[in-house]
């Protein structure tokens, strides 16, 4: 779990620095920074989504995942956690200066940003299987800098996403430890990783649209798609059907 611990520390340090910086920035500057981050998030999402070898896999993953997510009400659950955290620590954390961005919204948005992506899955699997936390160390550095930018604009609620990072990455690493060698060699070119990445890119696009305030999408309710994409690939491989 070394990589996960590094990631948590990086988010906490970056979030703290960003919160201190954000308090010194006028709301207009914070809003412009947030929109810039939204544009960058869209670019990252498009780049990830275009990597699919068969667009039907991400499409069905999103469709099935969206139905499951709505039935499970994942978005409501994350927002409930955010509200509870806001009730308990909101007065201490304070709010961002960008209109409409509460501790809850900052927590949910940053949690999704830090936990949706191939580095989260690959890094956690490598850490759990081999004890190799190099990829998560790189992710931790990137997340630390991202936390500075996000907390400067969205507010200190970003700090709370460190809990989500710990739960998600720690959970994946733990599952990888249990699975052992059953996963085989896992790289960015592994078919199920390719489709997971493409599906994650679609979710990242949703986050970008939210940051740009163009459309509020319940991205959390699409999270099951991340697990469904690899499952579809494994099912096709078991049936001997090529992508």
Q: Work out the number of β strands.
A: 0
In terms of DSSP E residues, the strand content is under 5%
**Spans where pLDDT lies below 50 across 5 or more residues:** none
Average per-residue pLDDT, rounded, comes to: 84
Main β sheet profile: none
- Please give the radius of gyration in angstroms: 18 Å
SSE string, helices as H and strands as E: HHHHHHHHHH
N-C termini distance: 34 Å
Report helical residue fraction: over 70%
Backbone shape? globular
- Structural class, judged by helices and strands? mainly alpha
- Number of continuous helical runs: 10
Quickly count the domains. 1
Characterise the protein shown here:
By secondary structure, the protein is mainly α. It has one domain (2-238). The chain is 75% helix and 0% strand. It has ten helices and no strands. It has helices at residues 2-22, 27-49, 56-72, 74-93, 103-115, 118-130, 134-154, 161-179, 191-211, 224-238. α1 (2-22) runs antiparallel to α8 (161-179), α3 packs across α10 and α6 (118-130) packs antiparallel against α7. The chain is globular.
Briefly, what is this?
By secondary structure, this protein is an all-alpha fold. The chain has helices spanning 2-22, 27-49, 56-72, 74-93, 103-115, 118-130, 134-154, 161-179, 191-211, 224-238.
Key attributes of the depicted protein:
243 residues; mainly alpha; 10 helices; 0% strand; globular
Helix-strand blueprint:
Blueprint: H1 2-22, H2 27-49, H3 56-72, H4 74-93, H5 103-115, H6 118-130, H7 134-154, H8 161-179, H9 191-211, H10 224-238
């Amino acid at each position: 779990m070394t990589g996960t611990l590094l990631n948590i520390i990086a988010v906490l340090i970056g979030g703290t620095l960003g919160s201190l910086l954000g308090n010194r920035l006028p709301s207009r500057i914070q809003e412009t920074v947030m929109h810039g981050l939204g544009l960058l998030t869209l670019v990252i999402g498009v780049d990830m989504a275009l990597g699919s070898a068969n667009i039907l896999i991400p499409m069905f993953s999103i469709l099935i995942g969206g139905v499951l997510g709505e039935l499970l009400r994942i978005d409501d659950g994350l927002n409930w956690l955010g509200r509870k955290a806001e009730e308990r620590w909101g007065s201490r954390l304070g709010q961002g200066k960008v209109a409409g961005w509460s501790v809850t919204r900052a927590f949910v948005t940053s949690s999704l940003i830090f936990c949706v992506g191939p580095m989260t899955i690959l890094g956690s699997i490598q850490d759990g299987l081999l004890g190799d936390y190099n990829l998560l160390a790189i992710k931790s550095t990137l997340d630390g800098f991202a936390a500075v930018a996000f907390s400067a604009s969205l507010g200190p609620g970003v700090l709370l996403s460190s809990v989500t990072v710990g739960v998600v990455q720690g959970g994946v690493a733990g599952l990888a430890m249990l699975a052992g060698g059953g996963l085989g060699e896992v790289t960015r070119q592994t078919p199920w990783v390719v489709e997971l990445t493409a599906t994650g890119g679609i979710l990242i696009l949703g986050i970008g649209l939210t940051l740009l305030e163009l459309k509020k999408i319940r991205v959390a309710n699409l999270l099951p798609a991340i697990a469904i994409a690899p499952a579809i690939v494994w099912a096709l491989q078991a049936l001997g059907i090529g992508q």
